[in-house]
Amino acid sequence: MKKIILFFLVIIIIADLLWGNTWHLIFQHDSYSLWQILYYFRLPRIVNSLIAGIGLGLAGLVLQTVFHNPLAGPYVLGISSGSALGVAIALMILGSMSKLISFVGTFMFALVGALLVIIILTILARHYSMVAIIIAGVLLAGIFSALISVLQYFSPAYSVKNYVVWTMASVDMSNYPIIITNLIIIILSTIAIASKTTILDSFYLGEEYALTMGVNVREERTKLIIIIGIIIAFLTASYGPIAFVGVISPHIARWLTHSMRHNVLILYSGLVGAGIMVMSDFLSHAFGVTIPLNAILSLLGLPVMFLLVLKREYEFF
Length: 317
Hints:
Elements: H1 2-18, H2 22-27, H3 31-66, H4 79-97, H5 103-125, H6 130-154, H7 157-167, H8 176-194, H9 197-204, H10 207-212, H11 217-239, H12 245-257, H13 262-285, H14 293-310
Helix pairs in contact: 1-3, 1-13, 3-8, 3-11, 3-12, 3-13, 4-5, 4-6, 4-7, 4-11, 5-6, 5-11, 8-11, 12-13, 12-14, 13-14
């Protein structure tokens, strides 16, 4: 199964890399134009898709296990909403003062917003239960949404439009220092999560079981929330609030492997997430016009989730 997924991923990457006018440049031996297109457009999109897919797949897997909630994803903790508020401030307050606010500026505001939420959740995770953390995430998301609505109401049309475009998500960003930073974050986070497969297996069987196995539940839960929070913070700041990938990738991985062991699911959740992202990016650019990434992900994700729910032999937990 792993070989099939890897083969599919390679085919999609090649298609995404060479689709469209790239073929003409190859046959015309126009190496300079080909290099410009690949280096500044196609390659960053593919690398961003792989980074986002792997990161969100892992984040969804860990969140669903820790919170024992099959619908848990990047939105459940309010971290994406924190990034959204940061971007709203950058685009609708500072952007109203100056139209020259850069992508890096927007990225930094989004990152700060997400990290503030992580700090709040880390404090709560040390003293309160999982239910309290989930409620806190929902409440924070509601507060941030209300503040964003106020900013939208009083902001000029072009600032609101810029914010709405950001919420549609995109992996077109070609800022290589940020791409490399995200890659390092994902590699380190993957290593950290892979080192906790036994703890995740015990969380899957319930907190009481984890306690009987000698796991310090609150401490390990706090560490996992910090790791996942950092992943979500950097990915949302870079690419926007990407829909469904974090929710459906772990379920597809469980369905494909028929396994609940996290040493298996970590690999497959990352591969499935990467495949979904690369395929969605390909489809968003394959028809001569650019379709918003979240629109493609919703069209792909909703039917898949619906089929998994209806499939009787498949159980979430």
